[in-house]
Amino acid sequence: MTARPIVLAPDPVLKAKAKPVDRVDDGVRALMNDMLESMYASQGVGLAANQIGILQRVLVMDVAPKDEAPQPMKMANPEIIAKSEETAVNQEGCLSLPDFYADIERPARVTVRYLDENNEQKTLDADGWLAVCVQHEIDHLDGVLFVDHLSALKRGMILRKMQKLKRSQQD
Ligand SMILES: [Zn+2]
Q1: CA–CA dist 79, 6 (Å, integer)
Q2: How many angstroms is it from 91 CA to the middle of ligand 1?
Q3: The pTM is what?
Q4: Which of 33, 58, 59, 94 stands the most exposed, by the fewest C-beta atoms within 10 Å?
C-alpha cells in the first residue's frame, strides 16, 4: 500500500465527475488500499478517489471511534437509492480543505447500493456520522465539495484562503 498526496481545493479534479468502474478487479482493490492508507496517514474518516487525482467512482471510509478497532469500508460505484425526509445538521471538514469546518444539512439517513472489494453488490443503511460521511464522499465523486452547500459568499471566502495557502506552499 502506498499513501498518495491529497489534492487540495481549489483544483479541477475536485470539480470533475468520476466515472463508474466496470468491475472491482485487482487494480480497483489496490486503489482502495492506497486510498485507505492515504486517509489514515492524514487522520481522515473518508476519502474519494478524486482526492488523490483519480476519476473513478471509488471511496473509502472508517468512522470507528479513535479508541476502537479500525472498521475500514471500501465502495465502488456507490449510489444513494433512498434518503430520509428528516435532515440533520453536522459540522463537516474535508482533507482537501484542511482546517475549514462548516455546519451542513443533509438527509439524516440514506440507503446506499455499492460494489464491495469482492465485486459483490451490497446495500448499506446508514445513519448518524456514517450517513454524513457517505454522502460527503459520494458528493466528491460528483465533483461537489461540502463548501458547495454553503452560500456563495462563505464558499468564496474559504476558497480564497485555500488559494493563498496553496500559493504559500508552492513558494
Ligand atoms: Zn471531503
Answers
A1: 24
A2: 12
A3: 0.96
A4: 33
Q: For cell 474559504, what's the residue?
A: 158
Kindly state the average pLDDT of the residues 121-132. 97
Distance from the alpha carbon of residue 17 to the mean position of ligand 1, in angstroms: 14
Whether 107 contacts 86, CB under 8 Å: yes
Q: How confident is the model at residue 66 (pLDDT cuts 50, 70, 90)?
A: confident
Residue 92's pLDDT band (cuts 50, 70, 90): very high
Residues lining ion ligand 1 (Cβ < 5 A) are 94
Query: Would the CA dihedral through 134, 140, 146, 148 be positive or negative?
Result: negative
Q: Using CB atoms within 10 A of its CB, is residue 89 exposed (0-12), middle (13-18) or buried (19+)?
A: exposed
> Largest Cα–Cα distance in the chain?
47
- Told to judge if 137 belongs to the known catalytic residues of this protein, a careful annotator would answer yes
What distance in angstroms lies between residue 49's CA and the mean position of ligand 1's atoms?
10
